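Fold this complex.
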Amino acid sequence: MKPKALILQAHGSNRDFDVIEALTLAGADATGIPLNELRINKTLLSTFQLLVLPGGFSYADALGAGKLLALDLASYFANEISAFVKSGKPVLGICNGFQALVKSGILPGEKKDVNARRKDDISVTLTFNEKGHFECRWVTIKPVSQNCIWTKDLGKNIICPIAHGEGNFQTAEFFPLSSFIANDQIALAYTHSNGSPANGEYPANPNGSTFDIAGICNPQGNILGLMPHPENHIHTWQHPRHTRGETSGSGLKLFENGVKYASNL
Amino acid sequence: MSIYKFLVFNIKDPRNAGLLTDAHALGFHHLQSLAIHDLYFIEGQLSQDGLQQLALKLLIDPVTQSAFWMELPAPLTPPDPDSVILEVALRPGVSDPVAGQIVRAIHEIGIDGVRRAATGQRYILRFDSSVSSSESIRISASISATLLANNLIQHWTIGVITPSFPEELASSGLVETISIRNLAADELLALSKERRAALDLPEMQAIQNYFIKEQRDPTDVEFEAIAQTWSEHCFHKTFKAKVTLDDGQVIDSLIKTYLKSATDKINAPWVISAFVDNAGIIAFDDEFEISFKAETHNHPSAVEPFGGANTGVGGVIRDVLGVSAKPIANTDVLCFGPQNLDPKSLPEGVLHPRRIQSGVVAGVQDYGNKIGIPTVNGAILYDQGYTANPLVFCGCVGIAPKGMHRKDPQAGDRVVILGGRTGRDGLRGATFSSMTMDAQTGEVSGASVQIGDPITEKGLIDVIVRARDLRLYNDITDCGAGGLSSAIGEMASTLGCDIDLTRVYLKYPGLAPWEIWLSEAQERMVLAVSPEKISELKKICETFNTELTDLGEFTGKNRLVVRYSETIVVNIDNEFLHDGIPQRQLKAVIEKPILDTRTTEYQISNTKEHLLSLLSSPNISSKASVIRIYDHEVQGGTVVKPLTGIEADAPSDAAVIKPIGTKGMKGIVLSNGINPEYGKRDAYKMAWSVMDEAIRNAAAVGADPDRIAVLDNFCWGDPLRPETMGSLVEACRGCHDAALFYGTPFISGKDSLNNEYLGADGLRHAIPPTLLISAIGIIQDVRQAITMDLKEAGNFIYLLGDFSTEEKFVSDVPASAPRVYRTLHQAITSRLIRSAHDLSEGGLAVTAAEMCIGGRLGMEINIESSSLFTEVNGCLLVEVAPANVSAFEKQFTKLPFTKIGVVTQDPSLNIRESVSISVTDLVHAFNNPAHL
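Structure:
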């Protein structure tokens, strides 16, 4: 049976249909559920095997991208999401979804309860791009983490667009970087188009993220958050150089990884 | 109740550098640094713990930001002697979506006792040591006025600002009666002026006669409603006027004579709806139809660039929603004054073109990106003539299942508004946009400014697409200029209605009935809903945080009846309201074309230098810095992107979109044609030329030339001046003739007139006559689309089309053009073409250079250097692989083509043996616009 994927449609989600198409192609039974509907029927979440927070501008990015959606997650779904994560089911947050996972503390997700929101609980953030503005361009990202069920064994780099103004991954001074790296929580990193590390160079690293971080996972490896949009490169004709015969770098594999994992649960 | 002020600052704020660059570009060279902090004002009663929670949980990002807060009034912190503090806050009543979210979120985190919120900014400015402290305050005030704040929507002060919340007024049911029946002619005109109705004497007399017949005077609501319905913006009276030419010829309506008639004569079976609805509709595939509309939002963008462009995008998206379609792509064509204009030469009351551009672009970005519609095609043009009157053309494409759009309200249906609340936003925008601007316009039109809320409109999309599929409404239209008056007035024009304005949800109390009826508050749609379907619609609205208001019913009595509780404030006969306007009588003088001497003026002594300077000139150079801040990938359907080639830095001819959710590989092609330079010289040929350009651009990526439809957008000066009217007539005639020539129908259009500025110097500043043609085409298989970047060394370069280089007024469209495009389409479909790029501004040399930039390959071409820069119509360069040469040449037998060169591995553009320019130099020139 196809694993069931819930795509949470917040007030201002806009790449919901893009990711539904990607998950469907990857073999999932993908359904978009508006946040208000899930609020009415919270137990619905547990009937799904996979949860996706899609890209968009939830609440228009008021007070910082993902901030108010993060508040919704903590206010309405803290227990449900916590149970979902603990059960090892795959969770994916893309762009605005990643921002919400980070600002709610679900990522990087140490031994914390999602409802805990003291200042020192939030140790990483996605802040304004170094260039100071929104940017849409295609980037190359390298799957790094072998602990993350989404990026494990992907092998090849993914070519896909970014489209964000607040994707600059930064950590607080007290952030335990060494254990973060030791836990294999850097899931995806920006590279040059030839695959060599971006080393912070613009535009390969489009936003100034520390360590070229494009995506991170929790220590368990079942939650992935990333800024780029692999869901916008699942067909060959989406490739920016398809008219030149280039076909590499599809993002579909990442979704197939998650779906495959969910179907084996 | 107390007001608390929170100051939030980033340890490193990337906005600072951009603002400093802008300030320097506007001539404030002594400014050394500028830092921005965000201000939040919270009205309520909060404990110290509550305040701290509010800051930590809501207002700051704990990793990058800090905050402090105080209760107002707070003693002024002694300012650092070397810096100036300047604070900015929104004026009361200006939409502040963030403030609304703060109040909602405070409640969500469980803090009680908060009533209202407002936002603002603090700027900290530091100057170099040559500036005395009194001077620094004076310069800061000037920076604030030119860059940081806009008086229309904000107030600012050196030092500490107090927020302003809308005054609490009792709800106002005030209705005035306007004594009109006994007014003399000059008094009627004075009344029109006083109420900013922009009506002329015959129109005022028609109103007077109607109320004499009704034996009463109108209410202010009635007068405003008539002024709005009869405004240029809503009624297009110039385009429907009877025009007498200087040779005595009479044209009865430009729309009927030239635009609609062309569509009727072409009679394309795939045109589903033209000129009758909010957007034009054409067939797509077995399941879907697609709609397209382009609007202008020029006047609002001149006075408040961000809000003007922002709501321009929002407005055209609602046009597409108004034909029950899901919006899938946006286009934006923008015209500005020179970016490096000396600030001292600015006419009084006019914003600097640089500030207008950055505001407009930010407005387009904010709306399009947030609502999740890719911005895929557009253009930016610069001309001195746009300094005081920038042009902002916003287009939107939508898709809907076939036959699901309904336009059939029934008597007994409910009159329903969906979406945002109503405030004083944009009052009289319809009549404002029909007037010439002057130095005072900025001040008096404050209420005409609107700020958009894209997420509310996203909710409307979610609701309407679902409601359409469930067939929950019988008619739908958007609330644009003219507000409820226009939307409900039009929808009720066949049935009449009876509604109550006290049911309208207001942003704040105190609006008079006429203000509610005319308000142009954004993000609202009007629907006709059968009473038994209201509850189902309401449920969908709740899911998507969208408000629904039931105002009353469609009566079938053919009168527009509007109540304010018990009082009837409008009671007008539909026939008078919609057909009672006298036809305008206008005069037109057609002037002789002006010779285009630009190429001969150049005195080309050095081809290399001239080409490089063209590549970095304002109108040709890369627009990447703008394109990249628009999301052109959302919805996953962008097949040919606005920037293309190996390094994605070369300009595409057109965009190709494959709509998500459609079966098969069919796609939509979007392109445009615009040429104000030709508009100044010969409006008739300009129309031909821009039609040709739009169609050629679409054909260059693979569109089927026999399946292209177009939109017209005319931006002109004051039509009461016979010469201006004459060039408008000529442009319309050109549109008609060119449309028939190509078999390309118009499906919708729009005009924006009076784009003139009466400067304090007493002189008129008019824009160049500007016609935008936006094309929408079909490509059978998106995988066959081609791009303009050179693909492979050894391939041959062909020049297609009649390449005539004689000196002309404005060059003609060659007779071969339609056949060239059809054959090109066949060749692309047979995969004989590797790349194609049209010849436009800058001529063949620029086309060749851009193809080299795209492929990072060289080209050797053999062409007279005197022809290199000639601007022609109907021509393209194409790249053909050696293996396909004979098949290609066979297809083009009997058509004009020349093999002019070859693609080379050596990355340089070589023209005969005399000129050689490295691709690196071409890239550098193109990517470094000289004027920025």
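The radius of gyration of chain B is 29 Å.
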